[in-house]
Structure formats: C-alpha cells, structure tokens
C-alpha cells in the first residue's frame, strides 16, 4: 500500500468534483476547490475521520468494499478505480521488471503486415521491435541506443524546443498527456522496477511539462484513433492508429494503416519503397 500516493490521488479526484456533480448544492461559502472531505465520507458511507486519515496517509489499508464506496463517491472511471485499488494494495501488483523481450510470433507478424507501419512498445514506452515501414515513417530505430528508443523520453526531453512535435505528429500535446497517464499506471504495476521509476524521476526533473502533468494524477487514457505525421519525404500522412495489448508481456502492438486507395495509403506505399534500404524488418533489441 502506497499511503502517500493513495492520499494524493484521493485528494486530486475530490478536488476536481463540483457539488452539483453529486447532487449537492454548491453554496456560497466554499473556499477550496471540489467537494469537502466530509461530503465524500457521507457519500461513501464511511466516517469523516477515516477518510481524512486516508488522504493524509495515516489510515490502515481500506477493504475492497470501502474502496468501492469511495470510488463511487468520487465518480471514478474504471481506469481510475483500478488505479485506486493498485495504490491501496488490494489488486495484484507485478513484481520485478517489466517485460522487454518480444515473442518470436510477434516479430514474425511484423514482417507479414502489408502496407502497415507496426511496432511493439513496452509498458515504459520503449520501442522494442518494428518493421521497415515503421522505421521509414518514424526513424531508423536500429541506429539508436536502447535508451534513445524510448518515446516518453523523446517526447519530453528530445526536441530542441519543448513544443516541437515528435515525428511531426499533429497531436503532440495529447500524446504527451497519454504518456504521463500510462507511465503512472505502469509505475503502480512495477513499483520496484528501477527502469520505470528512474524514467519517471528523469522526466520529472528534466521536463516542467511532465512534472505539471504528473501532479494532476490522471490515469484515464483517451484512445487515439487517427494520427497525422508530417514526413520530410512525402508530406502529411494521416493514418488510423490501433493499439493492441499483448497481455502476457504487458506490451502493445501499435499499427498505423490508411484506407485502401487513399492518398495516405499511396504515401505509405511510397515510404515502403523509399525507406527499406539498410533496415532489417522486425529487428529487436
């Protein structure tokens, strides 16, 4: 149980709520944002003293029933509720290191996907494997050290200018928000992994934007359905973005495709020709 993070997470969720969100009158004398602690306690059917101690990191581990009541009172989403249980130690936490080895069947799949830019990403945003078209669309990951293949590090620390878009993508701000939210969930799953905790510390120290987003304690990730790359050779390419979880490795297979016959599909096909020289499909670290 991480009492400090649990308390901070509860406080952040309480402060974002308005009285009218839970059917309470707003009243004229609220001097702090969000609901009062006693209001959450009433809604969750627990004592105010116990809830205050939870936010202050002084309470013993709450039961699953208590957490369910608090989650309902705070109007938590499924992702936020799962995160709450992780912080409280009532959900399984993966010990040791997050997996970074890619199954051979997935590596073979990368080579067999026609007109699809595909890569495998770890729970800590490291690109572990990729095909030729992904290298042509983004960059030749084979020429980078493993630490430099980390998209979280590149998004927040890589560009010369803080607002410079990674790979020219049009939704850079949304991507950085997603990185922060997913890294928070990853750290909760792997609290003893020095690679994960070290990456978070590095980003918090090196990026004011990451530090600001981290303190919001958001864990709800919005799906990215499309993405536009500004490529130096073929211009703008808008692709469908699908992310498929590889459950046993806690990894994601990310696929970029374009509708058949579209200008974007033609641009991908051109990249497939221009960008394959010297790149080995499905190369892994």
Sum up the structure in keywords:
285 residues, alpha+beta, 434 Repressor (Amino-terminal Domain), Beta-Lactamase, disordered C terminus
Number of strands: 5
The CATH topology of the largest domain comes to: Beta-Lactamase
Q: What is the helix/strand order?
A: HHHHHHEEHHHHHEEEH
Estimated helix fraction: 40-55%
- The CATH architecture of the largest domain is 2-Layer Sandwich
- How many alpha or pi helices? 12
Radius of gyration: 22 Å
Q: Provide the spatial order of strands within the biggest beta sheet.
A: 2-1-5-4-3
Report the top-level CATH class of the largest domain: Alpha Beta
**How would you sum up the global shape?**
elongated
Give the tally of structural domains: 2
From the helix content, strand content and strand pairing, which structural class follows? Answer: alpha+beta
Average pLDDT metric = 85
Give the end-to-end Cα distance, rounded to a whole number of Å.
34 Å
Strand fraction? 5-15%
Low-confidence stretches: 278-285
The main pleated sheet reads as:
5 strands, antiparallel
Notes on the structure:
The chain has 285 residues and is of the alpha+beta class. The protein has two domains: 3-88, 434 Repressor (Amino-terminal Domain); 104-274, Beta-Lactamase. The chain is 44% helix and 12% strand. It is built from twelve helices and five strands. It has helices at 3-16, 37-44, 48-55, 64-73, 78-88, 104-112, 132-137, 151-157, 172-189, 194-206, 208-215, 263-274, and strands spanning 117-121, 127-130, 226-231, 235-246, 251-257. The chain has a five-stranded antiparallel beta sheet. Helix 8 (151-157) packs across helix 9. It starts with a helix and ends in an 11-residue tail after the last helix.
């Amino acid at each position: 149980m991480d009492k400090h993070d649990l308390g901070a997470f509860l406080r952040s969720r309480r402060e974002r709520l308005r009285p009218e969100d839970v059917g309470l009158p707003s009243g004229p004398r609220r001097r702090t944002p969000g609901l009062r602690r006693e209001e959450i306690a009433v809604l969750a059917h627990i004592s105010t003293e116990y809830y205050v101690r939870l936010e202050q990191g002084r309470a013993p581990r709450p039961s699953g029933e208590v957490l369910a009541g608090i989650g309902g009172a705070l109007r938590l989403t499924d992702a936020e509720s799962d995160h709450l249980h992780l912080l409280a130690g009532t959900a399984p936490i993966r010990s040791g290191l997050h997996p970074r080895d890619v199954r051979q069947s997935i590596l073979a799949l990368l080579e067999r996907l026609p007109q699809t830019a595909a890569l495998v990403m770890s729970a800590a945003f490291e690109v572990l494997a990729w095909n030729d078209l992904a290298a042509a669309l983004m960059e030749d990951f084979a020429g980078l050290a493993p630490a430099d293949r980390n998209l979280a590090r590149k998004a927040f620390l890589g560009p010369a200018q803080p607002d410079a878009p990674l790979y020219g993508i049009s939704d850079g701000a949304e991507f950085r928000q997603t990185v922060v939210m997913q890294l928070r969930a990853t750290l909760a799953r792997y609290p003893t992994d020095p690679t994960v905790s070290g990456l978070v510390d590095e980003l918090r120290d090196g990026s004011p934007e990451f530090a600001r987003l981290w303190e919001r304690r958001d864990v709800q990730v919005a799906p990215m359905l499309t993405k536009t790359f500004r490529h130096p050779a073929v211009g703008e390419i808008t692709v469908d973005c699908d992310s498929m979880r590889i459950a046993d490795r806690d990894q994601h297979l990310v696929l970029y495709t374009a509708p058949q016959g579209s200008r974007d599909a033609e641009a991908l096909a051109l990249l497939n020709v221009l960008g394959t020289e010297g790149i080995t499909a499905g190369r892994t670290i």
